[in-house]
Amino acid sequence: MLLPIWAWASEGAGNYDFTTHWAGFLSLGIFIFAYFLVMTEEFTHLRKSKPVILASGLIWAIIAIAMEQHGMDGVAEQAVRHNILEFAELFLFLLAAMTYINAMEERRVFDSLRGWLVSKGFSYKQLFWITGFLAFFISPVADNLTTALLMGAVILAVGASSPAFVSLGFINVVVAANAGGAFSPFGDITTLMVWQKGLLQFHEFFDLFIPAMVNFVVPALIMTFFLPKEKPEALEDKISMRRGAKRILLLFILTIASAVSMHNFLHMPPVLGMMMGLAYLQFFAYYLKKTGEVSYDIGNQGEGVTHLEGKPITFDIFNKIARAEWDTLLFFFGVILAVGGLGTLGYLAVASDVMYNSWGATEANITVGLLSAIVDNIPVMFAVLTMNPDMSDGQWLLVTLTAGVGGSLLSIGSAAGVALMGQSKGLYTFFNHLKWTPAIALGYVASIWVHTQLNAALF
C-alpha cells in the first residue's frame, strides 16, 4: 500500500491510470529492484546513481510504448520533458552550492575550524555539545553530509582513545545535522524543493527553528549521561585559512541573498540567483589567479617542527566544479525521472487517496518522516509535492520537518549517517545507532508536538 508513495507524477502530463496495466507492474518492479540496489550500496559498493539512471530510461521507454499503443502519441514526451526541467533547476542550484562548499574546503575554512577545536582541550562533554551545536548551525548553510564529515573529523581526532565518546558523538552529529537542515531552505534537498515549488516563503521555514532544536536537544540530553567523564589531551593542530577564504564566505552569503531576492521580489526561480552567485565566485577566482598567491603550510609546532612551503597555489574554479558530488547529482536525475514515470502511470492518485484522504494530513506527514528513515527522503518528498494536497502552511512545515529529521532514526536514513559509518573505522555502526533510536524517536515526537503547539496558528 505504501509503495505508491514513491511515485511522482509530472504536472500537466494528464491523469492516466496504468496502475493495473502490464506497463505499470513492470515499471514498478524495475524501480523497486533499482532502489534495492541503492539501499545496499554500503555492501555492494555499486554507486547509487547507476541503477536509478538505468531504471529511469527503462521506465520511460515502457511508458512511451504503452501510451503509443493507446493512441497517446507525444504525451510521454511532454511528461518527460517536464521532469527534465524540474531536474535542471535542482541540478544547477546544487551545482553552484557544491562549488562554493568545495572552494571553502580548498581554502581551508573547515580545516581551520577543526584545528581550532582540537587545540582547545575541551572535555568530552563540552566537545559533545560544541560539535552538536556547530553541526546544527552549519548544516542550514552547508549540506548535512559536509557538516557531518567536518564534525566527525574533530570527534575522531580528540576521541581516538574513547570508542564510547566517538559512537555517541557521531550519533549526536547525525541528529544535529539533520535537524539543522530542516529549518532552512538551503539546509536539505527536501526543504530546497519545497521552497523552489513556492509552497512556503523563505522566512516561513524559520518557524521550524525551535521544533528542530528540540529534535536535536532531547536525545542529546539523554546521551549526555552516558559520556566518558575524563578530559582528552589537547592536540596541536593549528591550520590557517588560505588567501581569499573570508571573501569567498562573503560571496556565498551574497549568493544566498541573490537567490532569495530573485525568488521573493522578482518572482523568478531561485536557481537564477545561485548561478549569478557562481559567476561572482568565477570572477573572484580570476582575480586570485591574476594576482598570484603563495601558501605557507605550518607543520606541528608542538613538537618543535616548523615546515614552511612557499609554492604558488593556483585557484582553479573549474576544478571546484569538477569536484562536485556527481554521484549525488546523477542520483537525483535518476530518482526524478524514475519516480516521475511511476507517477505518470497513475500511482500518484492511489497514494494521494490513501494518505491524505483516508488517513488525514497529520498522520500522512508523520508517516513520511518514518519512511525517510528507510527510503531516501527525496523520492518521498517528490511524491508529496506532486500530490500537492490541499494543506495549510502548518502542514507543509510539518512534512518538511518530518522528512528532514526522520532520517536520523536509523544510521542509513541520511547521507550524514552513511558517511560517518564509513569514516568511523568501525566505532560507529548501524547497531550502535539503533540502540539509541528510542531516544531519537522521543526527540522526533517532541519536535512534532512543539511544532503543532508553537505554530498552531499556521494549521
TrEMBL record:
It comes from Thiomicrorhabdus heinhorstiae. It comes from the Bacteria. Residues 35-404 form the Citrate transporter-like domain. Belongs to the NhaD Na(+)/H(+) (TC 2.A.62) antiporter family. The keyword Transport applies. This is Sodium:proton antiporter NhaD. It is found in: Membrane. The keyword Transmembrane helix applies. Its main location: membrane. The chain crosses the membrane at residues 20-40, 52-72, 84-103, 124-142, 148-166, 173-196, 208-227, 248-265, 271-288, 329-352, 364-385, 397-419, 439-458. Keywords: Antiport, Ion transport, Membrane, Sodium, Sodium transport, Transmembrane, Transmembrane helix, Transport.
